[in-house]
Write a structure and sequence with these properties.
The chain is α/β, with parallel strands linked by helices and 396 residues long. Helices cover 38% and strands 22% of the residues. The protein contains 13 helices and 14 strands. A 6-stranded parallel sheet has the order 3-2-1-4-5-6, sandwiched between helices.
Length: 396
């Protein structure tokens, strides 16, 4: 269960990395060190002390690191007085949402304790955070996991109950070294950061909330997310344990009549499904899900939405498949209605299409009952097909 989220500060809550680099370059210039922006950006996510110590060795300065740190802090205060703090769009609202959903929040930053404290107070969000952790509180800065391990202890949670939000390569590596699920925030002002060690990447805070973090946390811990709970069905993300049941369904000639052939070997499908879970569900927030009977708790089919290129246009397409033992009982209409409702309410999707083989009378009947409209006849994957669609306006 998700209990806590640890935020980096610079580049995640405030867009301060350019200011930090500017301050560092001005100080280095005064001391004859030819350090450019790329050099300063290479230490994003680490500590300012680590940068000063490296610069002294690289550029041959005689100035003690404590003096460089003092000057950089003074320079940063001067810049902040002139320019102020730039909070990233949506992050204040997100912090409030997470707090009101009962999560414990902490800062784990490479900035000094006073900088963290002043920033949180100035932005009016200090009250939402249980702990403020600085790299100066630990022996080793990021990419070492020390600051995150300290945050876990201070929050009273374990790594499996926690998530980290980071914008830097060092920060993401530190989170993974601590065994914590990491959301990588792609901040263009943080330089070309390698966030490949993060579990998922995020480009904006404006469209996410507690539900996003809960879902990412569940996926990272191998737990499938339930999409819909209808009168007779559970629709949820699939896991690799579901693949054998899916494989048995697909072996039925009646079931696979209108779909591409499944691979011959089950182990190939297991690996494909594992990759699908890692990449598709987490990246898009949707995909083709499993359909399970509430009575038997067994998988009876698949249903969902996926991105397809159809007749020269990128579309989000509805597709479903049910074991033929469950045909004729209204399950197709029930699961498709639930998926369309989820896409409209939770994903804000405004148009969904369905490509149906002209000879597939059952699916044509289902599309009509879903209030989908026939747009045109097309050729899709070499077969004569019909394109149905449904639109949702923003007020519905």
């Amino acid at each position: 269960m998700l209990k806590a989220i640890i935020f980096d500060m610079d580049g995640v809550i405030i867009d301060s990395e350019p200011q930090h680099a500017q301050a560092a370059m001005q100080v280095f210039k005064r001391h004859g060190a030819d350090a450019d922006y790329d050099y300063c950006a290479s230490f994003i996510g680490s500590s300012t002390r680590a940068m000063t110590e490296d610069a002294i060795e690289k550029f041959g300065s005689d100035t003690p690191p404590e003096e460089l740190l003092r000057e950089m802090n003074a320079e940063k205060r001067k810049i902040l007085k002139e320019e102020g703090y730039t909070i990233l769009p949506g992050v204040r609202e997100l912090i409030r949402n997470l707090y009101h959903n009962g999560l414990r929040l902490a800062i784990a930053s490479s900035s000094s304790p006073s900088e963290i404290e002043n920033t949180m107070k100035t932005l009016g969000i200090k009250k939402y955070f249980t702990k403020l952790i600085s790299s100066s509180h630990v022996e080793h800065p990021k990419p070492a996991p020390d600051c995150f391990l300290l945050a876990l202890r201070e929050l009273g949670v374990n790594a499996k109950e926690t998530m980290v939000v980071e914008d830097s390569c060092f920060g993401a590596q530190a989170a993974k070294a601590a065994g914590i699920t990491c959301v990588g925030f792609v901040n263009p002002h943080s330089g070309q950061q390698d966030l490949s060690s993060a579990d998922v990447l995020l480009e904006s805070f404006e469209v996410i909330d507690y539900r996003f973090f809960k879902n990412v946390h569940m996926r990272s811990n191998g737990k499938p997310i339930t999409i819909a709970d209808t009168k007779r069905l559970i629709i949820r993300e699939m896991s690799t344990e579901d693949v054998p049941d899916m494989y048995e369904m697909y072996k039925n000639p009646e079931v696979r009549k209108y779909i591409p052939d499944i691979d011959e070997y089950l182990e190939v499908e297991v690996e494909k499904q594992a990759a699908y879970i890692r990449n598709v569900y987490s990246f898009y927030g949707y995909g083709i899900w499993g359909v399970f009977s509430k009575t038997s708790r067994k998988m009876i089919g698949r249903c969902g939405i996926e991105n397809l290129m159809i007749d020269g246009r990128e579309e989000i397409a509805l597709s479903y498949l049910l074991d033929n033992k469950h045909w004729g009982y209204g399950y197709a209409l029930e699961c498709c209605n639930a998926v369309l409702d989820y896409a409209r309410k939770e994903l804000d999707i405004t148009r969904i299409v369905a490509v149906i083989d002209k000879d597939n009378a059952r699916s044509i009947h289902t599309a009509k009952n879903l209030n989908m409209s026939l747009e045109k006849e097309i050729t899709y994957k070499g077969r004569d097909s019909l394109l149905y669609s449904i639109g949702f306006d923003s007020e519905s």
